[in-house]
Amino acid sequence: HGHVAEACETTLDALGLDALDSYLLHWPEAWAYQGPLRNLADRPVEAQEEATFPRDTDGEIETAAVTLEETWRSLERLVDRGLTRTIGICNVSLEQLESVCSFARVPPAIVQIERHPHTPREDLVAFCHRRGIRVVAHSPLPASVLAEPVVEEIADERGLSPAQVVLAWNVGNGVVPIPSSTEPAHIVENAAAAAVRLSPAEYDRLDALAGDGSGDERDGDER
């Protein structure tokens, strides 16, 4: 947690900014410190992975004995210093988020989670909406969801792409999806999904795809 300010200042320097709109904690558990990440993109890929994904002798992620509250206090000090306007957290469970909200002096403005019809995280999203926390969905377009027959059926019925259907499902639920598109045509298509309004029946059909809410399907994200 003592390295939070260093990381934020490195980001600001790289972007040529004085302050950020929001600064998010990528993971609720603290990982072992591997040194400054300045000029990370200039390092070989293997060195980048070693710096950002520290491993112990068993090949597991190496953690640090730092509590989530300690790290959050460091983030709050960034707000105090004017380095970021808001702070948030990613990849968090409902229990962890409830804990943060119980001790936070500066509450989270954004929560970023994996979210799509297979993993809707309804309880967490509802909690965020009650507290005015913006929910952002990363990895919203896994291939397994795009290939669902019901997604393809709705896409055909509406003259949309499967990706547009799934993105519209998130938007209609008050969630901001952030697909990692690189193809210009996909970027335009995805942006157009913000204007799509699904019917209650279509939401019901997509909601029926929900699994146990614990999956991680990012490896299949095609877009």
What can you tell me about this protein's structure?
The protein has 223 residues and is α/β, with parallel strands linked by helices. It has two domains: 1-108, NADP-dependent oxidoreductase domain (TIM Barrel); 141-223, no CATH class. The protein is 43% helix and 12% strand. The protein is built from ten helices and five strands. It has helices spanning 4-15, 45-52, 68-80, 94-103, 122-131, 143-146, 149-158, 162-172, 184-192, 200-207, and strands at 20-25, 84-90, 110-114, 134-138, 175-178. A five-stranded parallel sheet has the order 1-2-3-4-5. Helix 7 (149-158) packs across helix 8. The longest helix is centred in the N-terminal third of the chain and has 13 residues, at 68-80.
